[in-house]
Amino acid sequence: MASQVVEETAQDLPAQKGPDTAAESAAPVPPAAERTDAELLIAASVLLADAALTAKQSGAELTGALFSWRFGVEALRRPVWALGTAVSCARALTDSAGLGFGANGGLIGELARMAGSVTYRRPAKVAMAVDAFALRIKAAAVDHPNLDAPTARRLTDAIVAGNRWEALRAAYGLVELLGVTRALTTVSPVIMELLALLGLLDENPVNDDFSWVTLAGGVPTTDPFFGLPSSLLRYLNPGPGRAERTEPDSILAKVLATSRNDIVSYVNDIGALGNHGLVLLRRVACADGAVRHVLLLPGTSFGLLSNSTPQDLVGAFDGLLRTDTTYTRAAKKLLQRAGVPAGSELMIVGHSLGGLTAMNLAADVEVASSYRVTHVVTLGSPIDSKRSADPTTQVISLVNKHDVIPMLDGRGPASPNDIPDGWVELAWLDESYDYPLSHAPQAYSDTLRGELTHYREQVNKLISAYDGEVVGNQPYMLRDK
Question: What is the side-by-side order of every strand in the sheet holding 345-351?
Fold first, then answer.
């Protein structure tokens, strides 16, 4: 089954811009005939990225061969040949016409690479990677003209050039002009590319993995500044997870009383649950006579880095990079405690971290073997690197392209990577320009009820198996431990 990616702009809005902001919003947009073809730019960036990754691999193989024990043994037998070969390899690894200080891999290769980073040597692989990222940024500006405004372009140009002081001045100027939230929203389409460039062009040799994984289209497992591994998160988020039945307050009860099998209704339910640990398990007597279950998972609380629930910032980063998280473990205990029968059909709907956790549950072999996860519906979630254990699970991803969060999986508007076959992604630009407004459940609900109501109808058709009478709404409070 082929994947389906649909992108649209709300019809009565200049959706690629936020509300008027001094000269930035008044910047003229070139006529369509004069715009650069984004697809050509992305295609060129793919070629450069492949060349950069090939140069990196060539440098590693050449370094490994030069310092291997086999070469040492051969050097004892044929010293003249070995000397000539070593000189040729060294020239290829260090000459600007070759790999340009491209040694890497192994102890000696990594020491040489680190020395090159500290002394600001730019090998051919880095030069090509920088050009690839620069083309991605230019491609993103086609659909996001605010990226091409003078102050934003000053920032991106400085980062591409590796001029950190100019980048700091440009960032300050952008924030001074637009404010923090609008500045973040302006650069959000290329945030991963900018972070990758910062890691690639600084003198820190231990954070380069972030940049190379981003270039290859993967999800980095290290941070872009210090190169700290994601495995550290398991020590920051170690809770076994706990689920406790609770009763809805009057506001939540009122919302749930009118809820039905409708994507807008699910988004409103998630908004009413809040992000302080509450989730909802629904039991539905469906029109075809089957009893199915729906699990609603809200997103992150931004109040504290860590709190007593799985819905905190530490949990968000953990959910992005790993599948076995406190939120996932707590949700599994909820299903067990609720007595959901083995083999039951289950749909999981999640916003932000809730969407990540929905995909993490679908990827869990134990969950997939205990229940039939028929649908995963996510809103504003960076799930593109996740895969369900059951290939028949229908994944539906809803993305507001002004929202920063869905791009944290490395697949921004200029990424050459596509979603897996069988997935449905519905993306749009709407008037909720600024983050965090663009990320709020209400922003998604408003859009699906308004200009893009046909997306609502499309999703409702895909989940129509869950049409029927709601016979149970049970909130649960999830805790870390």
Answer: 4-9, 424-429, 394-400, 372-379, 345-351, 291-297, 278-286, 468-479, 242-245
Please, what sign has the CA dihedral across residues 294, 440, 155, 304? negative
| The pLDDT of residue 89 | 84
Q: Is 30 left (phi over 0), alpha (psi -120 to 50) or beta?
A: beta
**Alpha-carbon distance 336 to 342, whole Å?**
10
* pTM, two decimal places: 0.79
Looking at every residue in the chain, the average pLDDT score rounds to 86
**Secondary structure of residue 122 in the 3-state scheme:** coil
**DSSP strand pairing (4-9 vs 468-479):** unpaired
pLDDT at 29 over 60: no
Write the DSSP symbol of residue 29: P
Residue 454 to residue 457: CA distance in whole angstroms: 5
Distance CA 305, CA 311 (A): 10
The answer to whether residues 356 and 320 touch, using CB atoms and an 8 Å cutoff, is yes
Residue carrying the six token digits 């980073």: 117
Alpha-helical (H) ranges within 258-348 are: 263-273, 313-321, 326-337
Here the tokens at position 358 are 């929905």
3 state SS of 63: helix
Q: How far apart are CA 398 and CA 18, in angstroms?
A: 20
Cα–Cα distance list, 414 to 43, 312, 380, 381, 383 (Å):
10, 29, 18, 18, 17
Q: When comparing pLDDT for 357 and 123, which is higher?
A: 357
Higher pLDDT, 36 or 336: 336
Average the pLDDT over 107-113 and give the result: 76
In this predicted structure, the answer to whether residue 75 has a pLDDT above a threshold of 80 is yes
State the DSSP string of 130-192: HHHHHHHHHHHHHH-GGGGSHHHHHHHHHHHHT-HHHHHHHHHHHHHHH-HHHHHHHHGGGHH
Q: Can you give 352-407 as a three-state secondary structure string?
A: CHHHHHHHHHHHCHHHHHHCEEEEEEEECCCCCCCCCCCCCCEEEEEEECCCCHHH
Cβ–Cβ under 8 Å, residues 383 and 331: no
What confidence score (pLDDT) does residue 158 get?
A: 96
Tokens representing residue 184 in the block:
């973040």
Nearest-Å Rg of the Cα atoms of the chain is 25
Indicate the pairing of strand 394-400 with strand 424-429. Answer: parallel
Strand partners, 477: 244, 278
